[in-house]
Amino acid sequence: MQNIENKVIIITGASSGIGEATAYKLAENGAKLVLGARREDKLKAIVEKIKAKGGEAVYRVTDVVKPEDNAALVELAKATFGKLDAIFLNAGLMPSSPLSALETNNWNAMVDVNIKGVLNGIAAVLPTFEAQKSGHILTTSSVAGLKVYPGGTVYCGTKWAVKAIMEGLRMESAQAGTNIRTATIYPAAVQSELVDHITDSSTSKGYRELYDNFEIPAERVANVVAFALSQPADTNISEFTIGPTTQAW
């Protein structure tokens, strides 16, 4: 795919689901990858698989809630590959529940990862991208960032925040002439581990049934990420909504 070969790209949340699928897709197209997530065993296996097929990838154990971990990914990219072209901010949590369940620890975890994790990633790459007057920042939001539904109120709130942050970033970059492009992806039922972390029993049951009936492979989103990255430097496609044909999302 054009414009991907030799690009140096960071992926957070890279140990499973959309992040893992995107790593394989971009590696197949010649990108050089820097993978971040909390589970080292998963990251190591993914990097080894990419290298076994002739690709280039490194990893670092990363907690996106920590600004220093995000900064370290940027430094790893530069130290290993000499540059940085794009970052895919894909780490996220979805322990949804009704507000009345008062799962306040999960509320805070979603705010920390889904909002602050995105902001930390942006902060880590902006100095580099602004200095070189180029760069691409992509993130995984959710259809929950376009509509609100009962049982997912806090999760929806975090994903609406991502929509606002990314749109503001795009506009500010255009005004500043830094040529930084953005892409926000809004998946519906796509294969991931998100549902596994829902602790509210009634909510978990509903989500599990929904995903079992409708989910499409994470590779479908990886294709969208690759498409966004493949566009010419003068073209920004800022939003993508993607989901199963059979799901009424």
Would you mind describing this structure in some detail?
The protein has 249 residues and is α/β, with parallel strands linked by helices. The protein has seven helices and seven strands. A seven-stranded parallel sheet has the order 3-2-1-4-5-6-7, with helices on both faces. Helix 1 packs across helix 7 (219-229), helix 3 runs parallel beside helix 4 (104-132) and helix 4 packs parallel to helix 5. It is globular. The model has no long low-confidence stretch (mean pLDDT 95).
Can you summarize this structure?
With 249 residues, this protein is an alpha/beta fold. Helices cover 47% and strands 16% of the residues. It contains 7 helices and 7 strands; from the N terminus they run E-H-E-H-E-H-E-H-E-H-E-H-H-E.
How many strand segments?
7
The profile of the biggest β sheet is: 7 strands, parallel
Rg computed from alpha carbons, rounded to a whole number of angstroms? 17 Å
Query: Shape from CA axes?
Result: globular
Give the averaged pLDDT, no decimals. Answer: 95
Tally of helical runs? 7
Q: How would you classify the helix and strand content by structural class?
A: alpha/beta
Beta-strand content estimate: 15-25%
Q: Record the strand order, biggest sheet.
A: 3-2-1-4-5-6-7
Query: Helical amount among residues, as a percent range?
Result: 40-55%
Gap from first CA to last CA: 30 Å
Low-confidence stretches: none
Order of helices and strands: EHEHEHEHEHEHHE
Question: Which helices and strands, and how do they pair?
Answer:
Layout (H helix, E strand, L loop, with lengths): L7 E5 L4 H12 L3 E6 L2 H13 L3 E6 L5 H15 L4 E4 L14 H29 L2 E6 L12 H24 L3 E8 L13 H14 L4 H11 L9 E4 L7
